[in-house]
Amino acid sequence: MRSTLTVHELEAFLAVAELRNFRLAAERVHVSQPALSRSVQSAEHKLDARLFDRNTRRVELTREGEELLPIARRIVGEFHDSLSDLSEFVAGRRGRIAIACLPSAAAALLPRAMSVFQATHPRVTIALEPVSAEFVRTRVLDGSADFAISVAPPRQDGLAFEPLISDEFVCVCSRGDPLASRRRVSWSVLAERPLVASGPASSIRQIADRVMAQCGLAVQARYECANISVVGAMVAAGLGIAAIPRLALRLIDMSALAAIPLASPGVSREMGILTRSGRSLPAAAGSFLEVLRRQV
């Protein structure tokens, strides 16, 4: 074999092999009859074998042509199937979306958007990874996540942030606590009761600590836990109170708890879409973000 046959040559061979007529075969592949004949001759030259016995009355496959026929069908079929898959991917109708996100976003923002998206994109799979803000940034920068839903990064080196929603901080206490009857409470109340805080790596903890410092409150957490649902359970057990953004309440059993807006000052964390600067999103990821923007 002198060189590899092209898909075009294989398609020309298949058309002639199946129709046994060069004129009809040329019409099928939308070329002139001389062009079709040249493609078949090129295939024969490359294989150094005659593929058809032909005269003015009939066209028949040679033994070499019969051997090539199932191979050509398989190669051409796989080629067109692959092109179809690629077209589906480019159009955003097929593929995989990897999303890194804060746990609160995973619970409160994404499931509804995923449901709406899957109704129109059933061939797209979504991998959701709830992690802390620090790891969210890492996932986006190293490319293991197409995008993330998180708070704005402290530094945006290599990252782009699009605001999506403001998440209000509230004071969480047990339903039997006198605070539960108030319409709002000041951040200073956190210095008056035992404080149950989330872990140091949490964006919740970092924002709460910054606000309390700005208010001149010297507050030492009595209890600390990286798992926000456990923080809620500790508050429900009467161990103290906590400052938590509303979206994170989706991760907590609130049946025995109350959430009161925190004021003086009122504080919200801005959450949004985090992407890597200069990196194009796959079509499916871009389509999902369009759905998400409409849902929030």
UniProtKB/TrEMBL annotation:
InterPro entries, per the entry: HTH-type_LysR_regulators, LysR_HTH_N, LysR_subst-bd, WH-like_DNA-bd_sf, WH_DNA-bd_sf
Record-linked SUPFAM superfamilies: Periplasmic binding protein-like II (SSF53850), Winged helix' DNA-binding domain (SSF46785)
Domain HTH lysR-type, residue spans: 5-62
Keyword field contains Transcription regulation: yes
Keyword Transcription regulation: yes
Signal peptide positions (record): none
Superkingdom per UniProt: Bacteria
Keywords noted in UniProt: DNA-binding, Transcription, Transcription regulation
Stated family: Belongs to the LysR transcriptional regulatory family.
Protein name: LysR family transcriptional regulator
Annotated organism of origin: Pigmentiphaga daeguensis
Source organism phylogeny: Bacteria, Pseudomonadati, Pseudomonadota, Betaproteobacteria, Burkholderiales
